[in-house]
Amino acid sequence: MGTLVVVSGPAGSGKTTLAHELARILGCPAIIRDEIKQGIVAGRADYRPEPGDAETLRALDAFFTVLRVLLQAGSMVVAEAAFQDRVWNPRLTPMREFAQVRIVRCDAPEPVRMERIAARLEADGHRRAHADHTLTVGRPFTPVEMDVPTLDVDTSDGYEPALGEIVSFARTGRR
């Protein structure tokens, strides 16, 4: 049985940074939904992102296909995406048949998140693959809720709880 460590949270909450760090420490793959989408549109100079467009849906399907293959092979995997409950829960729940699931929910105050979003738009040309222009202050976000071990992490300034505790949780499902 594989282990799926879901790293979730609203845009700008630091989830991609944490997911890559966790995967590095754990010695397992990090599967990042945004990076899959970036690969899908990388060669398309004409691509203009919109929420829920065909490429977004293609990336979502590829994301869950890759997760399923790795988890059914018995791998530990760190998976990162926003994971809003209504969108993601129906796709995550069936994975409990072949994976132990743990959820890490990242968050930071809205001003911190908005500052991070603005900074990455300037610094990362690959962000053109995403509809970041639709991200606004006060946009509702409903964290994923499942009956599995869940850890809330404040990413405002580093990690609270500390990175070592997050790694331990990812390995064991316990704090």
* Low-confidence blocks of residues: none
Q: What is the N-to-C order of secondary-structure elements (H for helix, E for strand)?
A: EHEHHEHEHEH
Tally of DSSP helical segments? 6
Q: CATH architecture, please?
A: 3-Layer(aba) Sandwich
Average of pLDDT: 85
Strand content: 15-25%
* Overall number of domains: 1
According to CATH, the fold-level topology is: Rossmann fold
Percent of residues in helices comes to 40-55%
Q: Give the CATH class.
A: Alpha Beta
Order of strands side by side in the largest beta sheet? Answer: 2-3-1-4-5
**Could you tell me the number of beta strands?**
5
- CA-based shape: globular
State the end-to-end distance.
Answer: 21 Å
Biggest sheet overview: 5 strands, parallel
Computed CA radius of gyration, to the nearest angstrom: 16 Å
Instruction: State the secondary-structure class.
Output: alpha/beta
* CATH superfamily caption: P-loop containing nucleotide triphosphate hydrolases
Protein name: AAA family ATPase
InterPro entries: P-loop_NTPase
Organism: Actinomadura gamaensis
Pfam families: AAA_33 (PF13671)
Structure description:
By secondary structure, this protein is an alpha/beta fold. The protein has one domain: Rossmann fold (3-Layer(aba) Sandwich). It contains six helices and five strands, in the order βαβααβαβαβα. Strands 2-3-1-4-5 form a five-stranded parallel sheet, with helices on both faces. α5 links the parallel β4 (99-107) and β5 (150-154). α2 (33-41) crosses α3. The longest helix is centred in the middle third of the chain and has 19 residues, at 54-72. It is globular. The model has no long low-confidence stretch (mean pLDDT 85).
